[in-house]
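hi! just following up on the protien thing from before. the input was this:
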Amino acid sequence: MINIRSLLPNGGSKGSFTLVDAVAGNAADPHFFRIASPAQKERIAPGHLVKLGFIFPAGEERLWAKVTAIAEDGTLTATLDSEPMFGARILKQGAELSFELKHVIDTNA
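and the predicted 3d structure came back as:
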């Protein structure tokens, strides 16, 4: 089993959240940290759900977000579709997020 915090610069940030680099997690332990295939990620479009890994000061969790836009540089924008448990004081359902494909753990695309 891998320590997710070890994949983050400085072990993650305090008082906010950090997104897990799912590609790095999968490279460190592909049996424990499974991710969507490159083909699945290529199909992601606005309206699809993606699962992202969050590290909050109180704990780690995986949450779903609904993609709203994809920029020309590949940056995805989404609204959080889940209600965080560990990050409830930091992030709420409906919050807007920006991230890269490397952060995507799973998708319904």
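Confidence is low (pLDDT under 50) at residues 1-14.
The chain is about 10% helix and 30% strand.
cheers
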